[in-house]
């Protein structure tokens, strides 16, 4: 069928009463029946709908396309960094500035990573962007190389918005508001699982003699998770699809459980004691934050996994490639040029960067310090941390820096703030309640890469994510309560 | 691939600690992500997992097959009853004995049903059985002709049990316990929707000129529902599949909302005022119990729907065909012979009946009264009611009967209790808590029939349901708290 291009406003024109009475109940019910849920902190046997927007948020199709184009080059770039001696050198000096976390990760890397006989490396990445208001182009916020989340929920929220549209809930007359093709459903729930399955297959090829044997064995993916994960269902959606689409079983273990539940088999194969199943892929949904290693045992468990024969997503080299410091260094032409030969690709990658300064004693570092103290309102200060809640924003920067010793400043980077345009006509629903505050949306592009030295076995775009946060909040933690999962209305 | 027939016990041999620690969390999470949920009475924006069994319950494959075989003849039998003058005669006299409910339904039937120009009738039925312990044959508990529920949840619980099996949760060594083909997944979530779509198509054929026009129009299915339905998600699952599999939109309205939200168009077409959409099929998930008509307005709303041009599932003739009284009368050879010519079919149907007595002044009625007073422990006394909680069991019968006037006894039937074997090795999970009491399982077979006088447009088996209840409870209300949704392990 051919659809005539229909012009319509950026947002449905239904009023707030319609949203409250018609859309919110339908939306909440859909969420609660389709896994768009968070575990309830009070009772694990109930679920609450995850926070979402009511409408998809408009994103220029060109911006999404360009971010998507960048993903494979970024995947490859970070794979090369993970393989490089340069990473070790830089991380070694960063480890001194941040002994508490980068230092510990690096020590574990030195002690154990190389002891594993597994040469396959695997990255599940997410490159996050804001859309610069003036140029309508995507600017990178950060590149995550460990425990990227929301790939399950993202696809589901796309389906949710499509459902509401086709059911006529976005229109008082009950018609569809958006045309087919305008609403984007992220492929992440399928593509991330595809990459996990591919990694497991490569693990098997490497370790088994015949294809027939590979078919029959029951190697599994181990999800390494937090003890009380509220974002549980995002993970379960991937587990379900892994089974449904590829017949692959998964196991879950916290860092506390790893060493009691698993043992080493031949060549340090990771064997589940109770069932004898072999975990061929270790998929981390924890381990990215210093708080994840509250006990020495947790470091030990990470080391145990690191030294095992399993393919790690990620191993420590890949995880360490994702520090904010590396991100800052890559904005320097001479650094990125070490890894990216093709001039066009390099330019495209660099076009997505905003200015990032070190706070060391180099020329750029001196400039960074000056800007941090004198023009802080244009910047965000970031430590070598992941998971939200660690950054220092704008006018808080000078006092923060003055509160720590200057030789510790080196552990931070100073990043230009991206000027994204707030959206004013969407709503966030959380626990059935509406917020009408303006929101800022951050586009995430998932990527998967499996490599063995220079040999790249798979390098894929793996779907997208749109997260939206209240303008009034610096950060958009979905589980923490400031952000929500959104989806894209792709505007031409 | 060929599977060698593997002998295994009727139930997995995992211990209670394994069930609690390994199965229950996995089961609850699957339920909460896949719509096996009940609305929470406290907060509509949370869901609780619906009660289910931990394992599928063994059912002889032959018993299931024979119940399935009976469905089309039963559908046809009840369609013929709905068409018959005999039904009107019998219902008229029943109306006198039960003026409060049957009387009201019958009056509405007389006043309004024939005024509708719609000649298509549509039944969504469920015939319920217990398996007689001695003969291992299915015996009919009742035949429901209105608002049969759990078709959505039933399929999902089958998937749940299959998921737990394939994920190795039923086995300490993490292997599958059941063989492929042993676990039955009810087709109801698809087949009930298929019948709704077929009814809507027939409605359109009847009323529109061209096939092209039919493709484009946006006629919908109206779900008539209770105001605070805890079993909401069972219904939503059907709505979602109706859209997903057939592109058909649905609307929902309570009996309170029907007349404010809908109006009559040409030929009493049921038109949604706000959107102008036409409801071609009215699907009742309320209206089966006297409590559903708390106000006169509710009767009026039912009449308004009845007189409309929409195809009703069911209209009052079909609903009234499902009284317990009709069920009792059908156990008499001379009655069932009016409707079923084929001797073999008649025998098969009658083989599924247990003895049911009237409590009137006929010979059988006198015997019934005697048995009710003298041997009550073998019987259940049933009024003309649906939805659970109305029956009187065993030793409570004499006192109950003595408490009402003898000329009201006629509104009850006395039914022989079916002796089903309790299952002792399953568990019921409700709110994450286990019950280890023995259970009794009731097999339901869904059926759909669309007919126009003697012309049968569709007559289908529409899936199955296994509900299990605590032996200690007379009835197994799932939402009320005594029963749960189960699935079948089909034993050869
Ligand atoms: N340069 C920037 N311009 C504007 N906003 C920014 C910038 N950098 C960060 N932010 C905001 O702060 C949030 C957190 O920053 P960032 O993603 O770098 O931290 P993080 O701790 O790695 O978070 P996570 O890994 O949980 O996403 C971003 O999601 C964005 O909303
Ligand atoms: N003849 C019987 N033998 C054994 N148990 C019976 C018999 N009849 C009814 N029961 C038990 O009582 C329950 C309720 O009976 P029945 O289904 O006839 O009532 P109802 O009010 O129509 O219920 P609903 O329509 O909600 O299923 C049955 O599910 C079954 O557990
Ligand atoms: Mg981030
Ligand atoms: Mg990050
Ligand atoms: Mg019943
Ligand atoms: Mg009934």
From TrEMBL, chains A, B:
Pfam families: GSH_synth_ATP, GSH_synthase. Mg(2+) binds at residues 142, 144, 386. It catalyses: gamma-L-glutamyl-L-cysteine + glycine + ATP = glutathione + ADP + phosphate + H(+). Pathway: Sulfur metabolism; glutathione biosynthesis; glutathione from L-cysteine and L-glutamate: step 2/2. SUPFAM superfamilies: Glutathione synthetase ATP-binding domain-like, PreATP-grasp domain. Keywords: ATP-binding, Glutathione biosynthesis, Ligase, Magnesium, Metal-binding, Nucleotide-binding. ATP binds at residues 142, 324, 382-391, 393, 415-418, 442, 469, 475. GO terms for cellular component: cytosol. Binds 1 Mg(2+) ion per subunit. Substrate binds at residues 126, 235, 467. Its cofactor is Mg(2+). GO terms for molecular function: ATP binding; glutathione binding; glutathione synthase activity; magnesium ion binding; protein homodimerization activity. It comes from the Eukaryota. Residues 220-321 form the Glutathione synthase substrate-binding domain. InterPro entries: Glutathione_synthase, Glutathione_synthase_a-hlx, Glutathione_synthase_C_euk, Glutathione_synthase_N_euk, GSH-S_sub-bd_sf, GSH_synth_subst-bd, PreATP-grasp_dom_sf. PANTHER family: GLUTATHIONE SYNTHETASE. This is Glutathione synthetase. It comes from Huiozyma naganishii (strain ATCC MYA-139 / BCRC 22969 / CBS 8797 / KCTC 17520 / NBRC 10181 / NCYC 3082 / Yp74L-3).
